[in-house]
């Protein structure tokens, strides 16, 4: 069950990142974050009302609130790092986020077996290579590296926090709702400041109606990924769930190959293969 839900997390996050990346080519990143998360919050609010999730309110919601504060900061740092580039350095470096939940799991006493340790090493190496790292000739600004490390720390922290936010399915719906409301509040405040400083909230000509379904997909896929990761981490070793959930860059690369006809570099193809091998080792260990 842990492997299944963690791999589902990678699939959902990979597709959400792919969709978000496409949307930010024409729409400001802050707007993509606020609108997509706002749609997700509205849907989650309806689910919470329908399932009676309010009865699960308790101290654990502070974990969801904290995840909601950290998430937008991590995402915006990542987008800014990608803008500074090069992407071939930024994307693989962001996979260091897996170190946070894995470290938490080890501190809590988890001890993966030898096969799983090998699987973790192979999978993480594969994910880094799947990002297409530029090993030479890549001018990297110190600010881009710093922003990427901030994003990685933030993503990993969200991984760890959302695991502690609930213990039941209805409680998980409520936790995700609180997290999304916080995301919208933080992102909305940042968007307001950006506009006040002369930035643009919408692209020229306004937000195309056709982009709304895409924004909804990005927001709902991100929510679903948080949910499946929480289930995976609660039903098995966090060290295994976190590594399998971190395979999302492979999904993003394959989506770009399938939908945009982007050719995978040799190092990316090798990374995808290693990631799959690591997955098998983790699942069978």
If you had to describe this structure to a student in words, what would you say it looks like?
It is a single chain. By secondary structure, this protein is mostly helical. 76% of the residues lie in helices and 0% in strands. It has twelve helices and no strands. Helix 1 crosses helix 11, helix 3 packs antiparallel against helix 4 and helix 6 packs antiparallel against helix 12. The model has no long low-confidence stretch (mean pLDDT 82).
Mean pLDDT: 82
Order of helices and strands: HHHHHHHHHHHH
Query: Would you identify the regions where 5 or more consecutive residues have pLDDT less than 50?
Result: none
Overall outline: globular
SS strand fraction = under 5%
* Helical content (DSSP H or I, runs of 4+): over 70%
> What is the number of beta strands?
0
Terminal-residue CA separation: 13 Å
* Rg on CA atoms, Å: 18 Å
- Tell me the major beta sheet: none
Main structural class = mainly alpha
Tell me the number of helical segments per DSSP (H or I, 4 or more residues long). Answer: 12
How are the SSEs placed, and which strands pair?
Blueprint: H1 2-23, H2 29-51, H3 61-84, H4 87-94, H5 99-107, H6 114-130, H7 142-164, H8 169-196, H9 211-234, H10 238-245, H11 248-260, H12 266-284
In short:
With 285 residues, the chain is an all-alpha fold. It has 12 helices and no strands.
List keywords for this structure.
285 residues; mainly alpha; 12 helices; single chain
